[in-house]
Amino acid sequence: MDSTPLIPLDAFRQGAYACFTRAAAALFEVVDALLTEERARSFVELSQAPGFQRQWPSLYAALRDGQIDRDALRRLMVGRLPRPAPGDRLVLGVDTSPIHRPEAHTAADRTLVYSPNLPAGSIPVRPGWSFSTVAVLPDPPSSWTSLLDNARVPSTGTATTVGAAQLATRVPLVPVRPLLLGDGHDGSTAWVVATGGLACDQLLRTKRDRVLYRPAPPRTGNRGAPKKDGARFKGSDPTTHDTPDAVWTGTDAAGHACTVTAWCGLHLKSCRDVPLTVLRVTRAGAVGTARDPRESWFWWLGGEMPPLATIPPLYARRFGLEHGDRFDKQALLWEAPRLRTPERF
pTM of the predicted model, to two decimals? Predict the structure, then answer.
């Protein structure tokens, strides 16, 4: 990122305060307390922060009674985006993060959300709420992501429908064409159908057994409908790969051999008008686990693809979302308030 001056802090604070349309003073003191008190690990402790000059019940009163103009807040956040340096891209990420509420039996619209670190053999889900976040990802990856939007995934929706709706409203506000990095659930037919028309390039991680198709062969002149799809391509079936369109071989950041292979001009049956490039990244020094695989598969859709050598370090920036979520939950106490409704939360 370059050193383009951002909105002055006082102007940004005034803009944020203007987005609070009810209980503004109490809400703003909550924000200041979260930003200045590092030792607090509960809402009661947060009420003792120097930045919070009210009594501790005002913390919950602020979140219970407060109202926020979310559209105005989104515009404010877009207006202070870091500008990429010449030759760099504005890189976005979208992902969901769970808020567990297993004992809140009266909480509205709980769903089963992912829960790590449960005992072996347990189903890794617990009751709670899931939230979808769109953020600008820093380089190198860190918790200092720039949030653009945060929305709950209701029981009537999915991470795909909510994430696609967020991007549809946020991308037009971004001053430059962004690049989105998507995880496994984004590398699906439903996601491509929902987001293929956005003014946004995408690098999506996908499964190796996804089936795509090459362009349809020329018409034969025989009777009957012409073929709409060409030969199949399936990552897990090497007999369908044919000759790749491009290959790069080099070393990764640790000095181990790394190969990126590309097959261009593919498509999905349900959205033939969205051309896809399939990428396979093979890393000899990887452990071979789910978090550090030796072989990873991606889809590229959008404009001109970056050089193959930049694909592995580019996708690594997506881990900034995980760092950002951890900072929100641990330092900013995102999970701490026990509010009755998901709207108040």
Answer: 0.89
